[in-house]
Structures are given as structure tokens and as C-alpha cells.
Amino acid sequence: xxxxxxxxxxxxxxxxxxxxxxxxxxxxxxxxxxxxxxxxxxxxxxxxxxxxxxxxxxxxxxxxxxxxxxxxxxxxxxxxxxxxxxxxxxxxxxxxxxxxxxxxxxxxxxxxxxxxxxxxxxxxxxxxxxxxxxxxxxxxxxxxxxxxxxxxxxxxxxxxxxxxxxxxxxxxxxxxxxxxxxxxxxxxxxxxxxxxxxxxxxxxxxxxxxxxxxxxxxxxxxxxxxxxxxxxxxxxxxxxxxxxxxxxxxxxxxxxxxxxxxxxxxxxxxxxxxx
Amino acid sequence: xxxxxxxxxxxxxxxxxxxxxxxxxxxxxxxxxxxxxxxxxxxxxxxxxxxxxxxxxxxxxxxxxxxxxxxxxxxxxxxxxxxxxxxxxxxxxxxxxxxxxxxxxxxxxxxxxxxxxxxxxxxxxxxxxxxxxxxxxxxxxxxxxxxxxxxxxxxxxxxxxxxxxxxxxxxxxxxxxxxxxxxxxxxxxxxxxxxxxxxxxxxxxxxxxxxxxxxxxxxxxxxxxxxxxxxxxxxxxxxxxxxxxxxxxxxxxxxxxxxxxxxxxxxxxxxxxxx
Amino acid sequence: xxxxxxxxxxxxxxxxxxxxxxxxxxxxxxxxxxxxxxxxxxxxxxxxxxxxxxxxxxxxxxxxxxxxxxxxxxxxxxxxxxxxxxxxxxxxxxxxxxxxxxxxxxxxxxxxxxxxxxxxxxxxxxxxxxxxxxxxxxxxxxxxxxxxxxxxxxxxxxxxxxxxxxxxxxxxxxxxxxxxxxxxxxxxxxxxxxxxxxxxxxxxxxxxxxxxxxxxxxxxxxxxxxxxxxxxxxxxxxxxxxxxxxxxxxxxxxxxxxxxxxxxxxxxxxxxxxx
Amino acid sequence: xxxxxxxxxxxxxxxxxxxxxxxxxxxxxxxxxxxxxxxxxxxxxxxxxxxxxxxxxxxxxxxxxxxxxxxxxxxxxxxxxxxxxxxxxxxxxxxxxxxxxxxxxxxxxxxxxxxxxxxxxxxxxxxxxxxxxxxxxxxxxxxxxxxxxxxxxxxxxxxxxxxxxxxxxxxxxxxxxxxxxxxxxxxxxxxxxxxxxxxxxxxxxxxxxxxxxxxxxxxxxxxxxxxxxxxxxxxxxxxxxxxxxxxxxxxxxxxxxxxxxxxxxxxxxxxxxxx
Amino acid sequence: xxxxxxxxxxxxxxxxxxxxxxxxxxxxxxxxxxxxxxxxxxxxxxxxxxxxxxxxxxxxxxxxxxxxxxxxxxxxxxxxxxxxxxxxxxxxxxxxxxxxxxxxxxxxxxxxxxxxxxxxxxxxxxxxxxxxxxxxxxxxxxxxxxxxxxxxxxxxxxxxxxxxxxxxxxxxxxxxxxxxxxxxxxxxxxxxxxxxxxxxxxxxxxxxxxxxxxxxxxxxxxxxxxxxxxxxxxxxxxxxxxxxxxxxxxxxxxxxxxxxxxxxxxxxxxxxxxx
Amino acid sequence: xxxxxxxxxxxxxxxxxxxxxxxxxxxxxxxxxxxxxxxxxxxxxxxxxxxxxxxxxxxxxxxxxxxxxxxxxxxxxxxxxxxxxxxxxxxxxxxxxxxxxxxxxxxxxxxxxxxxxxxxxxxxxxxxxxxxxxxxxxxxxxxxxxxxxxxxxxxxxxxxxxxxxxxxxxxxxxxxxxxxxxxxxxxxxxxxxxxxxxxxxxxxxxxxxxxxxxxxxxxxxxxxxxxxxxxxxxxxxxxxxxxxxxxxxxxxxxxxxxxxxxxxxxxxxxxxxxx
Lengths: 275, 275, 275, 275, 275, 275
Prior knowledge:
Oligomer: homohexamer
Number of strands of chain A: 12
CATH architecture of the largest domain in chain A: Alpha-Beta Barrel
Distance between the termini of chain A: 33 Å
Radius of gyration of chain A: 23 Å
Shape of chain A: elongated
CATH topology of the largest domain in chain A: TIM Barrel
Strand content of chain A: 15-25%
Number of helices of chain A: 11
Order of helices and strands of chain A: HHEEHEEEHEHEHHEHEHEHEHE
Helix content of chain A: 40-55%
Strand order of the largest sheet of chain A: 6-11-10-9-8-7
């Protein structure tokens, strides 16, 4: 993931700094050294500290960046996450980009951690979706893992998910699964989206590895789990929120996918204080 | 902005599709043509329809994409925003990226529109900040404009904003403004951040073009506006939300900058329906 | 895959043409039009005709490129694969790059087709490996498919293959598989490399989805297949060649992976004849 | 060539690792250190050890890579080519890309060395062609040099080679050579392809610097060499293989170009063993 | 600006070195170390020494580059600007690119310094334009600053300059300025081009921040300055040369923009001497 | 060269336009169509009209660009070079970049044409050097050709030029030439720099293809030409200007290289007039 982080950080810095930080150039004497701290302004689950470090390091390899917490840890309001020392101009120029990344990533980790806490003890895993911010998928999915979630496929290339339109085009659930099993890498499981119990049964008979119960009621999900009876993994999807997720998990599904983890992120509140 | 949109769309498509959409490849016959609609699933202010069109066009220039609404318009739940026709494989491969962009952009426009509506009639402008998603600043700022807001500087390179650390480094407000006026392009206004009325006064005397009142109380803002008395533009910043924004606007400030417009975006609910 | 083909073709053309084809510039009058044919100089399985077309198209969208055969078809010595018409300078400049790609791709497809023919009727699939030419993996793997083979994982990111070193690091086969099942995307099957029947048994007990029998004798493979008895997919790997592949297939393995398909490619003999 | 090696290595690593090596991530504890050796599994001429080192270094500058042999040397089965020490995850992630490059490059060097050995003592040089793998020309041509061969032009931009179609377009051999001499950089020799002795004579009269005898019989080549009599360099091309090359060299030609050096490469057998 | 310098240097080195410096490769033994000096062959104002250092550093981080002068200083014929020590091959390969950049940059700084000297004591600033060499604007504008000049806007994105065609399109000076004030970032001043005193008056009334007097006679400029009377910044533009610039400055304008600073640059005479 | 032109134009447009032309956006109504002409404001030799067309085309393929003159032609003050029609916003956004390129290129062609005219009838060719603007070498060298000059090598990779430091490193002129002849592509001529007649003699004996007489007096050049007597090409270099070039040409040298053609370019005066 290192090359991807480099690409993201470099793109972000060029976007923000362009041909130069005009304010700093005229006010801060070259060579001025500064020290700063990244401080939590609320409680949250941390993600992105390494990426924040990379922001400053890619501006100047001589910046000292000391992590006090690690990604995945819970932090409390007021705690210092890391401290930095380096040229004042570099700290000022990297500040906004580092915070933009760190706040979004921690926001994702924190929301994920809340879902994970809700389903604790049920055996269900919380997973993300492809509803990520374009260009930042690697970081979005990493943040989900830091919050205790797992990842669904990265993109269209590394996982099979046969949806309604694919079924229609292939001429039915059986035909679609069959062709996937014949043609695709044997390393990928075949997942299929179902809308009712009839489809679940068809998918099961066709040998699907994973059966997604899409937008079903709690009752339908329960029946689906019973029907599948361990012969395939069961994924619940659609309309999942913090209120409903526990009930869904208790039906016995294996996987619950939650789009909101990444598509509607509240930035965690973090400041960079110079001292 | 065309080259930037191309870069964003291309990056997003490569991120999502990689070496191929394995599911579609085995289920959808080459040459199958499909028709689909982008449909609003709630009320919101539209932004990003041109970017969505670019997603499909960059996959296949022959896709037909017909816009029914224009960016900046209000749409109602159930309305069709645009319809598309093209190879089924192309519609399926572009769907997620197009929605991810369109939903975020419309989310930003919609939130901006709410802030703009709140300050209606006061003479205050709602502006964004640099708290955007790394790599998408061009789209984030465009979406703010579509919601009726205005843009603050794009980045560190095209606007002067002298903050606390710059003031300290330069040896005071007067010295900092003076150096900016001597050295920087004459085309840029000099903005300075102030924390109390003493600093406001100093900034005014030094000839600042824009004075930011940062994290001040309503009462302080009112006094700041009085003190400045039209001799500089006044920008209120910090702790602005939908509850407080009207009161702030009524103090007579010219500009209100709102980080939340872009750092904590709720995706607008939009679907792509095949028919 | 379109963006990847564009990248490969563009890189290849810049590599070959640089700042210009000095010979053509001084000998061929601007505007001269030519017609040429791509002709098979031996029998082979075709792959890469679309990529060859892209070479000329990316030099000049007005080149006419008419395919007579399709990728995946068998062609005979002397048959015309496609004909082209366009500026003579463009045909001359694209010739070498187009042939370099087409000849390698058809070479891969042809060798794959020979392996596939050998195992016909046995139920075993021929798959490739990651022993591809750096930068051309997408084309190498596509060519394997055109020859009737299937693809193993694209890279380290889209498939789990637990090898000796991973097992040692994780503290045993059971522990390694267990951690993969807990942590990784539920969409990926867990494959593990085994060197003897004891390891096969361990892997089976730990719930591996795919068991690779690495560098085993025919006799060991047979015993492995018996032991696994359909509870996991069986992949044979190591020392596979055209002489041994049928015997291996007849043991009942599901998958046979062959590094030679892509690491030691004989270019198919193809010419471009101007007429 | 450093920037080109960086490009190739980076492209290859991104292609293979993508967003991460999922297997290693879950099985190998962060910080585990490993040691490995690159070992020859057969006799060959070495090329690419520096490129292999670059693979690991670009993943992690702290990897220690100690070369025991140098490019261009002959190595024997069982000899250790280099040893490495570094994070286990880095060694595992770079292994395949390093081997893919090193095996292809050594394969080219080894085949070249065989051709060079065949013509020893004749005064003829073995040179490559533009039949290289797209994107890897720099490495392919370097490997030829390591095998004792010389390079023909890199691409269309740095050498003049007037072929049949150019001659026809220019209106004859004399006219083509004349225009090249008038217009092109004076630093480039003018090479022309001939198919029979009449053309050789024309080329000689027109002042060609290099005359290629294309697909001629041994007897024709001998006559060509006699006719040219040292007034131009003579290059034999077409249908050259390990059986025919000595006879061709003994005709007295200066240069023998061999497409097979790079278009049909057998990978040298090399392993990376962890210890 | 660091990323931009890296881009420029890398592009230039790839352009000049391509796949290798063939002369050095065969004549200079690997490992040969050399020492060289950059020497002024005439008097000039220095700019670009850091960029020259970056050229060698990006070829080899171990090159020692010791600056004796700093950008912005005046140097005399015969003075040594910097000395270098490193691999002979690296010094030879970087020489031309380093000199090409350093000579152009110092040429710009020197010409700027002459203009700045001419207007000394008048209160007018010398500024550049967008007439820079494509791809090098960052360096061109930096060099102007090193010569004592100031920068106009970087590009179309960071400054408002309403010209004749914009005025016509907007429906008059007042309308154009009005729309700019309503819509654009409040951080940018509004500059407008005027051709006569009537337009100056209109611009003043519409509240322009900067009024450009374009191609006006000295007399007109004087009247413009009187009319504006400090209510806007005054910029003189068009037909400025070393002969006319003092007279223009003495009219009391604030800003004089000079296209020739960057569009017609005489390279400063600098050599790299090996010793 | 097409890909290189695309790279240059794209880089230049991004550099100038960034995230948008703020002035045009607020003043020019979307959809406004304009017509403009490129007009010569002085006499010169034209180069770059195709590149200028590419600027507008890459912003909008629908712009109509009609060339009235062709590169390489002489144009007179007042003549219209081309006319354009398209969206007003596109014409305004491309104007500066198109002129910057066209004016520099025509400046180079014009200066070259003056040198070429000076040496008319002497048999000497005027050639350029590597003293080009970094990133624009392809255009600089093309412009020299349009002015009637020829190109020296493009860079270090496509031509051999053995200089003082190479000779010293190789251990003498003979050794250096010998190694170049043994090792380098047979398609490149061997050029060597000489400083006096003794070196000329050594170079001749060693079989140099091209002998550069560097910074020699007219008398020395004459003696060098006599000594070489057609056995190698003779190139005069150093201290060439419009006053001295005819005398140098009349000594009988074949090639005169002139750094000033590209290192100190006066932009040709060209305007874009809207009508």
C-alpha cells in the first residue's frame, strides 16, 4: 500500500501547496524550527497516523514525527496523538493535508468501531462496501480495518458479486453461477445477491459460496439463514444502521455490509497545536 | 477544470475496475445494450451530473448521457436526473464511481444551500475552507458554488491568510502585513486571523484587506464589525453551524467560512436504475 | 482493462518512436497512404489483435483496421489476420510495436492451447502463475484465457496463497489458515501450499479452500487427491510440462498451474506486409 | 538508465502488489526479519542483479542486498548470486518481481553469450533488434550487452534504417540515401536494407554507411561482402540461428542481427531461498 | 515549489539522457571521481543554484554540491559559484541540464535587476507576466523575484484580470467588475485593463482594485494616475523597455509589468570546469 | 513527436489554467462563440502553428483552426497566420499558451534562417546544440529545422561526442575512439572534440567519423580542414555568431553548431486578435 499512500499524499500536497505557500514564504524566516502536537479534541478510534507522518516526511525527510498512539487504538479528548519537530514552514505547509486525511480516517474507524461494538458476541463481521471516496479507497478500507471491521472486495476486479442485472443477462441464477465457476479464477468465491427466499434457494442449489440477502426484513433474513444452514456464507446488506445492526447480527448472518461506514463520514475532531 | 476532472475520473475508474470487472465479464454477453436512469431518492441540491457523464464517457465515448436537470438545481425525491444508454458492461462498470462522485457532490451542494438559505437577506456570503477531501478539492469547491456558496482560496498558493504562527514568526501583525504587501503579488488581498479586538485594531491599522474574526462570540463579532466599519472585509470563522449561522450573519460580517461544508459530508441518496 | 492497454501501448510507442522516426520522416512524403496486412507465417492460436489495432489507433484515430479473425481462434500459416489502411508513416511507425505485442500474446495463447488440448476430458483446468513479464501481466493473463486456460490470482492483492514461509511465520498451517479466515475479505478462498501428505491433512483439517500439491510425484498427487476427496480444490504445481501434464491431470486434480505459459514465450511468427 | 529502471520496477511492483499482499499481512508479524539467497538452478550468464536489488530497495531502502556475482559473469548451477536481509514482508513481496526480471534478463544474456561464442574469432559482432518486450527495451538491450553482444539502434529515433517501403516511397535507393544525408543529424550513419546484389551495388554507389543483407543465402552474403569490400559496414539479418550463425560470420560480415535474442526468451532458472 | 522543481529536473534529465550517455559509458571507468566548478563568465545576478544542485542530486544523492553564492546575489566574471564532487559520470551527465537551467534563470534575474535598478526610488514595482516558457513558469517567476522583481498572478486561476473581451462579453466595465465581486473568492483583487481615461473612470467608479493602463502614452499614464488618486493600484503595461521604464515609473504608477523579462531571455554565461 | 507535443501542451495548459480561468468564468456567458486571428506583428520565419492548433484542440476538439501559412514559411508584418473559431472561453484560455509556444518557436526558426542565409552557397550546414530549454527540446529542435538548419544529436543517448574529459578518462584520443568503435551501436558515428591540430591529427589517425574544431581561430580551422581533407566530417563550434559565421563557413567546414539558436531566443512578435 506504500506506493498508493505516496500517490495520495503527493496529489494532496500539490493540490494544496501548488507553487508555494505565499503566506509562509513572506512571514516565516527560512530555517525557523517549530514543534507541534496532534491533539484529540474528542474521543475516537484512531486511524491515519502513519499517513499523517508521510505527509510531513514527503515534504522534508528531516521532520521528526513521534507517534504516541497507534492506529486502531481508542483515544480520549485531550490526548496527544503524536508530536512533530521540523522547519516551521514545513509544519505549516503539511498541517491541513495531514489533518484532512487523519480526521477522515479516524472518522471512518470510529464509526466502524461503533458498529463492531454493537454486534459483539454474535459472530457477525462488519464489512465495508465500494461506496468510498474516489481516489481514497485504500485509506477508507484500511480505516475500516482499524475500527475492527473487515473488508469486502476492493473493487470489481478482485471479487465476484452477481447482481440482478448480471442474473438477467446470464439467463438466471444457475447459469450465472455456473459460468462464474467455469471461467473465473478458482481463488475467488462466488457471491450472489438475492431478494427473496426463492432466489436464496436457487443460489444454494447452484453452489454459490456467499449469498447476499439484500434489503430483506429481519424475518426474511432469519428464514434465509435457516434455509442456507451453513452451506454458504450469508451476507446481510441494505438499510443497515446503528439501530438495526444488532438485530440483524442476531439472526445468525456471517457478514453485514454497511455503506455508511465510508460514504457519509463525520471527520474526527483533531487539532495541530504549535508550541 | 476539465483536466482535473479527467484525472479524478480516471483515477477512480482504475481504482474500482483495475484489470477488469470479473462478474460482468462472465455474465453479460458482449454487445448487450442497456438503458438506465439516475434517480433522486430524497430531496437535494444537485451537483456533479457533468462529472457523472464524464465517468461513462471516459469508459466509452459512445454512451449516450442525457441530463434532465442541471447542477445547482433543486430536485425532489423520485425525479429522474438523467438517463443513459450504452453497452450494459459499461453502465455496470461506471455505476459505482459515478454514484460515489455524484452523491458526495450533491451532498456538499445541499448542505451549502441550507447555510445559504439561513443567511438570506443578510448580505453575508457562505464560503468553504481547505478542509476538503484530498484529491477532490476542485469538485468539493465546485459543489459549494452549485449550492450557492462562494469559494475561499483554493490552496496555500492563491490566497494570503496570516495566522497566529505567521504573526509570531514575523514579529507582530504589523510586520507580517507589511511584508506581505511588499513582497506578494499585488493581485492578492491580505487576510489576517484575529482572536480579539486588540488584534482587530492592529490589523486594521496595518492595512489588512480582510480581517478574520476567529472563534469569537457573537458579541465580539458585533464589536469587531463596528470597529472595522467597512474599512476591511470581515470574515467570521470557527464554530459555525446551522443553528448559529443566522445570528452570525446578522452581525453584519461579509463572509462566513464553514469547514463542515466539505469535511463531514452526508452523501445525497441517488440510485441508478436499469430499465 | 482498457486503461491498462492504453498505458502499455503508449509506453511502447514512446519507447520505440521517441522524438520521431527519422527514416520515415525523410523518405516518405507526408500524406502518402498505404495498405498492409497482418499475415500468419505459421499455425497458432491468435491473441492480441485488438491490442494491435489500439497501437495504430493511438497513433492516428483515422487508421482503418479490419479484423478478419478474433482472439482465441486458431489460424493457419498464410492466413491474413487483419488489414489496415492509413498514412504510410503511421503504419510504418506502429508496425514493430504492434507485432511485438501480437507475436508475444499469440505465443502465449498457442502454448496454453497445447496444454489445454493435452488435458482434454480430464476435468482439470490449466492456469497461469505470476511469472509474467513485468508491466504486461494484464496482456499475459488475457492471452492465457484466449488459449483456453484460466487465470490464477492477478497478484498478491486478490488471492491468498499461504506458502512455506508464511506457515513458519504464523506458527503452523492451522494458525495461518485461521488468521486468514478471520481477517481477510470473505470473498477470497484460502489456498495453501503443501509439500507432503501430512501437510495436506493438516490443511484439510484447518479448512483450506484450495490445497496446492507442490512439486509432488504422480503417486503423491494421487494420494493427495484421495485424501482430500473433494473437500477442497486440488491444485498441482511445479515441474509441469507438455510431457507430464496429461498424467497429472488424470490423477483427478482440479487445477494445474504452469509457469512456462508466460515466463518462456516463443513469439508466434507474424508479418506485416505492405501492398 | 536509472530513471527507466525506476519506472519499470515501480510499474511491476504496483502491478503485483496493488493495495497489499493479503497473505503476508495476516501471517507474518510486523517487524519479522528474514534472510534469503538468490541461487542459480542451472548454468547461465548473469544479467539483472542490480535491477533485482532495486526491486527490494524501492520497497524498503533498509533492505541489505549483497551481490556476490556481477552482471556479465558466468554462473554455475548451485552458486549463490546474492544474499538479502530485511523485513520478511518486504522480501516476500519483492521476490516474484525480482525473479521475473532477473530470470528474463539472464535468459537474454545467456542466449546472447551462446551466439557470441559461436562467432568467436571471426570479427563479426552479434547485435540485437527492436523485437523486444514492450516497456522493457532498456533492460533487454542491456542484457544483450551483458551477454557480450552489441546494440543496434534503440528505436526509430536514434538510427536510420531505410527499408523496402522507404525506398519505394522515396523513389529509389539513391534518392532515399541522398535525402537522409541532407536532412538528418550528421551524427547518424545511414543504413539501408538490400535484398540482392543489384541493390547492394546501388546502395554502395549512393554512399550508404551500412548495408544490410536481408534474408540472403550464404553465397549471396559472400558475394555482397566481396562487392562492398570494406567501403561500408555489412550487416547480415534474417533467418539467423545458432546453427547458421558461424557460417554467416565466416563470410566476413561485420554485424549479425538476431531477433530471437529478445523475442523468444527462455527464463534462466533462479530461486530465492529463505534461510 | 519542491515538487515542481523535481518534475522539471526529472523531465529535463530524461529528455537529455534517455536510456544512457553512450559516450561516457564507454570512456569513463565506473567509479571514477571528479571535481568541478561552476564559474561565471560574465557579471550577472544569480538565480537557480539550488535547482542546479537538484539536478545532480536527483542523479545521485551522494554528489557533494557546495554553494558559494546564494540566489539573488550579484556575481562577477571569473567568480566560482559552486563546486561539486562526485562520480565523473554523474557530473558529465548532469552538466548540460544544470547549465541550461542555471543560465536561463540567471538571465532572467539579471534582466529583472536592470529594470529594478532603473526604477529605484520611484516606488514602482517591476512585475512579470504570463509570457513565460511553457513548463518552467515556476522557475521563471522565482528568477524574477531573485532579480528584485515581484510576481503578477501565476496563471488564470489565481488572479482576476478583466480584459477587453471580457468587458465586451459581460456588457461593460461596471457589469464585469460587479459580477467578479459577487462571484469570485473574496481573497482576490479585481484588476481591469483600460485603454483610455474614460475607461479608467468607469473602472474607478465600479470599484476596481487594480487598474491597468494598457499601452498608454506617458501623458495618458500621468493623467490616469491623477484621476485614480490612490483609490486603486495603478499598473502600467505594454511597450515597456529599459529606455522607457524610468519615465513610466516617475508618473507615479504602482506596478510596471514587463513581458520581456521572461519571453526573450539572454542566457547568462556560465561554465562548468572540471579540475 | 505527437506524444511529446501532447505532453508539452498539457503541462503548459495545466500550469496556466489550473483549476480554472476565474475571470472568464464570471464574465463570459457559457456558449458564447468567438472568432480570432493570429497575426504577425513583424517579419519572421514561422514555426509552431501546428502546436498552437494543438493547444486549442486539447482544450476543445470542436475548435476550428485554419492555417493560412505553413511552418518554415517566411511571413510579413501584418499577415494573418491562422484563424480560429470556437467557444470564447476556450479561445481566451488557450491564447497565452499558444502564443508563448508559437512566439518562441518562430523566434528560433527566424534566427536559424538568418544563420542559414549567411552561409548560403558554402556547403556548410547550420546545426543546433543541446543548449535548449529544459522540457522543450523536441520543439526547439523542430524549430531549427523549420528555419533551414539541421539537428545535432537529440541528447546523450543518440550520438557520441567525445570531449576533453572523456579523452582524459579513457587515456587518450586513440583509446577513446577505439573503445567507442568496439562497444557502441554501429549505427552511430564517432565524433570527437579537438582543441588544436595535434589533436586533429590524432583523431584522424584513430578513425574518427566527425572531428569538432572547438573554439579555434579561423586560421586554425582552415588548417584543420586541410589536414582532414575529407577523411572525416568537420564541425566548427564555439564563438559562432552572425558576424563570424560566413568566414567560418568559407573555410570549408561541413557543420557549424550554434548554441545561441536556442539558448537566447527573442520571441517573434505575434498577436491573437478577436473579431
